[in-house]
Specification:
Layout lengths: L28 E4 L4 H12 L7 E4 L7 H7 L7 E4 L2 E4 L1 H11 L10 H24 L4 H15 L16 H21 L8 H10 L12 H13 L2
Parallel strand pairs: 1-2
Antiparallel strand pairs: 1-3, 3-4
Helix pairs in contact: 1-3, 1-6, 4-5, 4-6, 6-8
GO molecular function: glutathione dehydrogenase (ascorbate) activity; glutathione transferase activity
Catalytic activity: RX + glutathione = an S-substituted glutathione + a halide anion + H(+)
Pfam family, one: GST_C_2
């Protein structure tokens, strides 16, 4: 059961002209880009656990990022990163697990061993899923990406007691995939006139149910911005 949601107004993203926050002052900060799917994973996790007061979201402008972010916060100069207990942690899949296990709020991994292992396996497959779909943009897109979406459809058949990967329990497996499926559904429809849910009823139901989750709603990116971004990045000649 998700924690209560808060109608939150994020600050303007920090850019090269911005002063840094008072770093390592005991405040836990989650550095994100509002349009980054990797950062979105951590933002959803933080929201679902109701950590609005415990973890402060700090948006960064990736197109004009502040020098102090690389120098003083995260040497890899990527988002997301989490400033917590005097250290900084990166990598979205590591971070969603870290936030889930180190902070209060509803757990996003089950106690059931079989379900937990299935979730871990699904989370481990996300890089392969994303690589398959992104690579397809350069070839016969809908044909080459199809097996990746079929993999999700099959995974959603494993537990029949609900619409999520682990059945009735929303989990880190869902968190790991939804930022990318959100983008792929919009982009495949707009650029290739292809509905990724056609012939995949469980995927369609999963997307429908995730879209009802309050922790996810404010993290979504404007569809028009997504289409323009993917056009420029993948279809520019």
């Amino acid at each position: 059961m998700a924690a209560a949601t808060v109608n939150e107004h994020l600050p303007t993203p920090l850019d090269a002209t911005s002063e840094p926050p008072p770093l390592f002052d005991g405040t836990t900060r989650l550095y994100i880009s509002i349009s980054c799917p990797y950062a979105q994973r951590t933002w959803i996790t933080r929201n679902y656990k109701g950590l609005y007061d415990k973890i402060k979201v700090v948006p960064i402008n990736l197109q004009n990022r502040p020098a102090w972010y690389k120098e003083k916060v995260h040497s890899e100069n990527k988002v997301p990163s989490l400033e917590h207990n005097g250290k900084v942690i990166g990598e979205s899949l590591d971070l969603i697990k870290y936030i889930d296990s180190n902070f209060e709020g509803p757990s996003l991994l089950p106690n059931d061993h079989a379900k937990k292992q299935f979730a871990e396996d699904l989370i481990a497959y996300t890089d392969t899923f994303n690589k398959t779909v992104f690579t397809s943009f350069k070839g016969d897109t809908t044909k080459e990406a199809g097996p990746a979406f079929d993999h999700l459809e099959n995974a959603l058949s494993k537990f029949e007691d609900g619409p999520f990967f682990l059945g009735h329990e929303f989990s880190l497996a869902d968190v790991a995939y939804i930022p990318f499926v959100e983008r792929f559904q919009i982009v495949f429809s707009a650029l290739w006139n292809y509905d990724i849910t056609t012939g995949r009823p469980k995927l369609a139901k999963w997307i429908e149910e995730v879209n009802k989750i309050d922790a996810y709603k404010p993290t979504k990116t404007d569809p028009n911005e997504l289409v323009e971004f993917y056009k420029a990045r993948f279809l520019a000649q």
